[in-house]
Amino acid sequence: ATTIDITPERAQPQRAQPDSLDQCRRCELWRDATQAVPGIGPTKARIMLVGEQPGDQEDLQGLPFVGPAGAVLDRALAEAGVERGAVYLTNAVKHFKWELRGKRRLHKTPAQREVSACHVWLEQELAKVRPEVVVALGATALKSVLQDSGTTMGAVMDAPFQHQGRWVVAVYHPSFVLRARDEDSRRQAYEVIVAGLRAALRLLG
Ligand code: URA
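A: This is the predicted complex of the input protein with uracil.
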């Protein structure tokens, strides 16, 4: 008689998706990126900052907010009295999306399907860190944090609000400061970020 070998190991179904961020194939962005960029910070951080996606420098170094936008963020954190090492820093999308212009890799805004595909990693970070306050830097971060592609910055930027048991503060993305057309707009956008970071601190009591 033939015996059918169904040892428990063999009977295990194959995982549909690999578990490690670096192996993530939930969307196509991994193809053109150097590496996935995970969040960084203490697992007990009380504040989590969520950006959009890694930029050119972040893609190369494997760390969030180490390029020009990171420099703006550093300045704003210092001015608000928030220590960078005390917060958890991450992005809504973990792979760099870009297009070549001349010799430069220029940032491209991720599509909603890419933000949604990547949301599982942000959820994992939120579950691990359990921050009391999430600061969404820009519209992509906000949509991912709320899991609502319809929310606009204008609707929520004025005041912190509660979402799923934690505070959310929405501010401009630091690169919005860099792109602003004149000094006045740059200063205003920057001040919104500083004010949001101060509000996040105040919420901790
Ligand atoms: N912009 C982001 O949103 N995140 C980074 O890590 C760098 C630039």
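DSSP finds eight helices and seven strands in the chain. The two ends are 73 Å apart (CA to CA).
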